[in-house]
Write a structure and sequence with these properties.
heterodimer, A: 259 residues, mainly alpha, globular, B: 322 residues, alpha/beta, Rossmann fold, 2 domains, four-stranded antiparallel beta sheet, 11 helices, 28% strand
Chain lengths: 259, 322
């Protein structure tokens, strides 16, 4: 157990070091969602969006929940990228030739992605706060938002890692990633409530786990516990199922790749 | 003299989706020797190596490393071996020292062990000056040295090197050879793959020539060369239609062992060149068969390879040396 911890700590520190050496990329990763989506998109659509439809005091306050979950989505789906490069340049093979527990590399990745995502979510909530969006459920609500983000993120990271282990080239990986990300966002309640969507889009959006996550995060920010709790309960159930499926698929892909 | 067996490979086979990459390999590696797996790209060398380092499971047969099975005792095997992969398996963003520190934790060294061993290794591979620079600033040779330091970090009993000098310049290559020899002095068994004949010839104590997933020849390079029997005289004939005629005439001359026709002339194995050469030239004269070129040499490892696989390793050798 002590050895397992030593491995995971060292592998996680490697991801942290890499991130800190890529300052430029780190800045963009952190700033991009709040700059593009929250500040630009949120303010841009302030008057175009109908308050009657969004049921929020401002579009940016409606959008905050969406941006939080979008960040989880993008970080999760990109979570396998570094492993993909490790696989391609042989570093993964070097790691796997050492007497580490077979799960250590993957677990270190989960820990890293989850931590970075949580920090980013806090920053987004902070920026939203500057624009007058204060989560009505307070600190406990923020903790609940982080928890939902983590649950969603684990499944997404598992999908991403499964893809990293399965694809033949990193070109394939990024094509699939690009194909998945935007439809997931548009076919969810991130930008527009389900009720205001064209029927077919609203129908498809119901099956998007992202919608469930947003529908739980949004009342935690806008309405309060009474409205949020049933959604939170639902999303935990949905995410347990989602994570189980993703982790099962990920474990299979990993076993096939590593043996 | 019986020597301690470090690796015992028995009827090893590996099939990928109906392709037999490795087919019924059996060989032994002794403690303290440099053992080379020589063959062209795709011959099955790297697959064999990956099975030995426990990253691939064989589909048949077994590999035993220091008495431990490569599948059942994989974790214990991993503790006793070092591995230097073929690709430059380097994290560009980490410094040389950080690579070693990471691996020290993965091999579960204590902080004390790590802090004594890491400077020693950096000194050994002459990377002390560059130890705290990110690896992306390293030259090819420096990356290779770091690779080797990483392979030696666990203080292995057996070190596996996959194409250790592929793509290196001549000087770096010789330095790497020195390092490999130094490991043998320390009693480490070294198993390496290569598709460079001169590397196999000069560096390895014993080699296995692998082609199409099978061992075609196994032994000490000099003995393999001697085993071919006789020195080689190669003739290039100006008029190609006279080659058959000349072959028939030369075949029964004294001191001739074997005659094979090549697209441009003849390859003749001779017992003593002093006797054979005048006789061959005489025969060519009598047949008024003009010779364009005569080459005479003692058997080289190329010839061993050619004799056992029916083709030259150079046919598909990557141009990585320059």
């Amino acid at each position: 157990m002590k050895e397992y911890w030593q491995e995971i700590r060292a592998l996680t520190m490697r991801w942290v070091r890499r991130l800190s050496r890529e300052k430029f990329s780190m800045l963009f990763t952190l700033v991009q969602p709040m700059l593009f989506w929250l500040i630009f998109f949120g303010n841009l659509f302030q008057r175009a969006a109908d308050m009657q439809v969004t049921q929020a005091s401002s579009y940016i306050s409606f959008l905050t929940a969406g941006v939080v979950v979008m960040t989880v989505l993008n970080n999760g789906l990109a979570g396998g990228v570094d492993l993909l490069f490790d696989k391609e340049n042989g570093f993964l093979e070097r790691l796997m030739s050492t007497p580490i527990h077979r799960t250590s590399v993957i677990l270190s990745r989960f820990i890293f992605v989850t931590t970075i995502t949580s920090l980013q979510v806090l920053v987004i909530l902070g920026v939203a706060w500057l624009f007058g969006v204060q989560p009505v459920t307070g600190l406990l609500g923020v903790a609940t938002i982080l928890f939902i983000g983590m649950m969603f993120g684990v499944g997404l990271t598992a999908i991403s890692m499964a893809m990293a282990f399965s694809v033949k080239s990193h070109g394939d990986f990024f094509s699939v990633l690009g194909f998945l990300s935007l439809p997931m966002i548009f076919l969810s309640s991130a930008l527009v409530p389900l009720a205001a969507m064209p029927g077919w889009m609203g129908f498809l959006a119901q099956f998007n786990p992202m919608t469930w996550a947003i529908d739980a995060v949004r009342p935690l920010i806008l309405s309060g516990w009474a409205e949020a709790l049933p959604h939170v309960g639902m999303v935990i159930g949905v995410m347990v199922l989602f994570d189980a499926l993703c982790l099962y698929g990920g474990a299979r892909a990993f076993r096939r790749a590593i043996g | 003299m019986s020597r301690a067996v470090a690796i015992e490979v028995s009827h090893l086979g590996k099939t990928y989706e109906k392709v037999r990459a490795v087919d019924d390999l059996s060989f032994q590696v002794y403690a303290g020797e440099i053992f080379g797996l020589l063959g062209p790209n795709g011959a099955g060398k790297s697959t064999t190596l990956r099975i030995l380092i426990t990253l691939l499971h064989p589909t048949s047969g077994s590999a035993t490393i220091l008495g431990m099975d490569s599948v059942k005792d994989a974790d214990r095997v991993r503790k006793t071996i070092g591995y230097v992969p073929q690709e430059r398996a380097i994290d560009r963003f980490l410094t040389g020292r950080e690579h070693l520190e990471l691996l020290a934790d993965l091999y579960h060294l204590s902080a004390d062990e790590a802090s004594t061993r890491i400077p020693q290794l950096l000194k050994l591979v002459e990377l002390e000056q560059q130890a705290d620079r990110p690896a992306k600033t390293y030259s090819g040779g420096m990356k290779r040295k770091l690779d080797i330091a990483c392979g030696l970090l666990p203080d292995p009993k057996i070190l596996f090197l996959d194409e250790p000098t592929l793509g290196l310049d001549v000087q770096s290559r010789l330095r790497i050879w020195d390092h490999v020899r130094a490991m043998r002095e320390r009693g480490i068994a070294v198993v390496m793959t290569t598709n460079y004949l001169d590397e196999a010839d000069q560096l390895c104590d014993r080699i296995a020539i692998i082609d199409g997933g099978r061992i075609k020849a196994l032994g000490v390079p000099n003995e393999l060369k001697a085993g071919l029997g006789g020195d080689l005289v190669s003739l290039t004939v100006r008029e190609h239609d006279r080659v058959e005629l000349l072959a028939a005439a030369v075949k029964d001359l004294p001191a001739i062992r074997a005659v094979t026709t090549t697209p441009t002339g003849l390859d003749i194995r001779v017992d003593s060149p002093e006797k054979a050469l005048p006789a061959i030239l005489d025969a060519a004269n009598r047949l008024t068969c003009q010779l364009e070129f005569i080459d005479y040499h003692r058997p080289r490892l190329d010839d061993v390879f050619l004799a056992h696989t029916g083709r030259s390793i150079k046919d598909d050798q990557p141009k990585a040396e320059d």
